[in-house]
Amino acid sequence: VQLQASGGGLVQPGGSLRLSCAASGRTPGAMGWFRQALGKEREFVAAMGRSADRTFYADSVKGRFTISRDNAGNTVYLQMNSLKPEDTAVYFCAANGLTFASSRAYSTRGNYNYYGQGTQVTVSS
Questions:
Q1: In this structure, which long-range contacts are made by residues 10-15, counting pairs with CB atoms below 8 Å and at least 24 apart in sequence?
Q2: Could you tell me if 113 and 3 are in contact, meaning their C-beta atoms sit under 8 angstroms apart?
Q3: Which of 95, 99, 100, 101 has the fewest Cβ atoms surrounding its Cβ within 10 A?
Q4: How far is residue 73 from each of residues 49, 60, 82, measured CA to CA in Å?
Q5: What DSSP line would sit under the chain, residue for residue?
Q6: Given CA atoms 67, 31, 109, 3 in this order, what sign does their dihedral have?
Q7: 118 Cβ contact partners less than 8 Å away, ≥ 6 residues apart
Q8: Euclidean distance between CA atoms 71 and 89, whole angstroms
Q9: In a 10 Å sphere around its CB, with 0-12 CB exposed, 13-18 middle and 19+ buried, how is residue 72 labelled?
Q10: Which residues contact residue 39 at a Cβ distance below 8 angstroms, ignoring those fewer than 6 apart?
Q11: How far apart (Å, rounded) are the C-alpha atoms in residues 101 and 82?
Q12: What is the pLDDT along the chain (125 residues), one digit of tens a residue?
C-alpha cells in the first residue's frame, strides 16, 4: 500500500483545513492520522475502520476533527475545524491491511503497516 497525503497549509486560529490521503495498491482495513509537532513524539489523532460507525479520536481533537473515507474506501479525509495553535504539526496518514478489534489498537502507531509522507499544518495568526 502506498499513501499520498495532501491538504496541509497555513491557517489562522479558528480556521479549517481538510486533509486527504489516497491509498493505492490495495484497499486498507484501518486508516488513520497521526501528527508530530516539533520536538515531540508522534501522537494519535483519529482513525477508522471500513465504516463510519468505527471512528476513534484523541481527546484533544474530539468535537473539532472528523475522519471519513470515500465510498471505495481508498481515500481517508480529516476535516479539521476550530483549529488551534497547538494543532500545528506534521500530519501523517496511516493504514493497515486489516481492521483492529479495539479502540486502543486503532490509536497505537506501531500497529499500522503503512505510513504516508507528512503534510505540514501550521495554525498561526
A1: 10/122, 10/123, 10/124, 11/83, 11/121, 11/122, 11/123, 12/123, 12/124, 12/125, 13/83, 13/84, 13/85, 13/123, 13/124, 13/125, 14/82, 14/83, 15/83, 15/123
A2: no
A3: 101
A4: 9, 26, 26
A5: -EEEEE--EEE-TT--EEEEEEEESS--SEEEEEEE-TTS--EEEEEE-SSTTSEEE-TTTTTTEEEEE-TTS-EEEEEE-S--GGG-EEEEEEEESS--SSHHHHT-GGG-SEE---EEEEE--
A6: negative
A7: 5, 36, 90, 91, 92
A8: 28
A9: exposed
A10: none
A11: 31
A12: 899 999 999 999 999 999 999 999 989 999 999 999 999 999 999 999 998 889 999 999 999 999 999 988 899 999 999 999 999 999 999 999 999 999 999 999 999 999 999 999 999 99
The cell for 94 is 496511516
Distance (Å, rounded) from C-alpha 106 to C-alpha 115?
Answer: 14
Quick count: other Cβ atoms within 10 Å of Cβ 82? 13
Residue whose entry in the numeric block shows the C-alpha cell 481517508 = 76
Angle at 75 between CA 115 and CA 49, to 5 degrees: 75
